[in-house]
Amino acid sequence: MMDAIYPGDAWEDVEPRAAGFDPAALEQFTEGLRALTTTSFMVVSRGRVAYRYGDVSEVSYLASTRKSILSLLYGPHVASGRIDLGLTLEQLGIDDVKGLQPAERRATIRDILTSRSGVYYPAGSPGGDDDGTPPRGSHAPGTRFHYNNWDFNVAGAIFEQLTGIAVHDALRDQLAIPLGFEDFDRDRQRMLGYPDRSRFLAYHMFLSGRDMARVGLLALRGGRWNGQQVVPESWVRESTAPHVQPEDMQGRFADRGLGYGYYWWLPMHSQAPEWEGAFLASGHYGQFILGLPRLDLLMVHRRAITDERAMRRNAGIDLGDLPSVSSTQMVVLGQAVLDARA
Questions:
Q1: How many other CB atoms are found less than 10 A from the CB of residue 24?
Q2: Beta-bridge mates of residue 276
């Protein structure tokens, strides 16, 4: 994409009709958003903003969307050889408060990145499929998908161990600076969780919707940004390839039509060409980045919550839920945007 458009200091807007959308249909879409808990929404078409709803500059908790961003951070270091996806937990010296089993220590970094580690150790942060956790030692590494925050949290620790770089510093240096984030605050990024339960905590991120859109555009463009290959294209392809098929999903993620790559969800519910190669970063309450490469089209959905709420949740003080937007609803919203094309 030699003539591809990228945002500069700020995003450039394009009239919806010029981007191929029916303004009346987008008005109906807005009415639909008002019925949800959505706080902001962006549609980026070919590098320009064709639609905005709410305050896209509001910085808020990303929840599990952080995991897809970590996947991007891994890319350059895998390419350089610093991170070898074939290394096992045993080789890395990874252990936890109450000890890992011998079979669990055979899990590789690749198993960790596809949520198939076979490690069912209690996670040091909320948000995983805890109710569906199998008994420890019941499945060999690499054989069964299970959404356990232990995997995601240890992936951050492995990144730091092998690169010597803190995850949040990498977020700043590998993405925020080269992509020109407008609202990034390094001091706002935090490690959160229960250190008495697991030594591996969650590397939580707090970004704005318009900066999430920059991350999404980077992934949509195969890791390239304004002539610079920020993340190897081969890594983006590998990360957004279906390593786990929808029929192999387990627990609360079964029957959603979603596959899984390296910490990216893959909408595979439709055979329509528009959805070919689609990828989704998904976070609790309704934090989403949806990319449709066939159309060079990107959507960002936010359901912003307060920092206080995020802190209380991750301290285990308040695990009660709030009205949210689910990944299934986000896919429906994505289709509604597609249906709004003129």
A1: 11
A2: none
Instruction: Give the tens place of pLDDT for each residue, 6-62.
Output: 999 999 999 999 999 999 999 999 999 999 999 999 999 999 999 999 999 999 999
**Side chain identity at residue 152, one-letter code:** F
d(CA 75, CA 240): 12
CB 281 within 8 A of CB 302: no
Say whether 24 sits in a helix, a strand or coil: helix
Q: Beta-strand (E) ranges in the chain?
A: 40-45, 48-54, 59-61, 190-192, 202-204, 206-208, 224-225, 228-229, 258-260, 265-267, 279-283, 287-292, 297-302
CA dihedral 280, 141, 101, 148 (to 10 degrees): 20
Check pLDDT > 60 for residue 262. Answer: yes
pTM above 0.85, yes or no: yes
Region of 146 on the Ramachandran plot (φ > 0 left; ψ -120 to 50 alpha; else beta): beta
For residues 150 and 323, give the distance between their C-alpha atoms in angstroms, rounded to a whole number. 26
Asked if 198 and 124 count as a contact pair (C-beta separation under 8 A), the reply is yes
Q: Are 280 and 246 contacting, i.e. CB atoms less than 8 angstroms apart?
A: no
1 is written with which tokens? 């994409």
CA atoms in the 13 A half-sphere facing the CB of 298:
24
Cα distance between residue 308 and residue 289, in whole Å: 23
